[in-house]
Amino acid sequence: MIPSCKKASLLQSMQQDRALGPLERLSLATHLAICVRCRRVGRQLEFLRLAVRRFRDLDPP
Q1: Is-above-0.85 flag for pTM?
Q2: Domain total for the chain?
Q3: Which of 20, 27, 48, 58 has the most Cβ atoms closer than 10 angstroms to its Cβ?
Q4: In angstroms, rounded to a whole number, what is the distance separating the alpha carbons of residues 19 and 12?
């Protein structure tokens, strides 16, 4: 079964914190294959994760 956008967004967020299980990965991949908006959300989450990491790694002034 293909998850809703809400569930797919939740899985993408969870994926930032931990490894998804096999069924979660399959469910998310299936949804992302057909949903442009959720793929965009995934790219935005990745951008934010990298931005926070770079900010955290900056030397204090």
Answers
A1: no
A2: 1
A3: 27
A4: 10
Domain that holds residue 39: 5-57
pLDDT at 61: 67
Burial code (b: 16+ CB inside 10 Å, e: under 16) for 24-55 equals beebbeebbeebeebeebbeeeeeeeeeeeee
Structure confidence at residue 6 (pLDDT): 95
pLDDT in tens, 3-57: 899 999 999 999 988 999 999 999 999 999 999 999 999 999 999 989 988 887 7
Beta-carbon contacts of 3 under 8 Å, excluding residues fewer than 6 positions away, are: 11, 27, 28, 30, 31
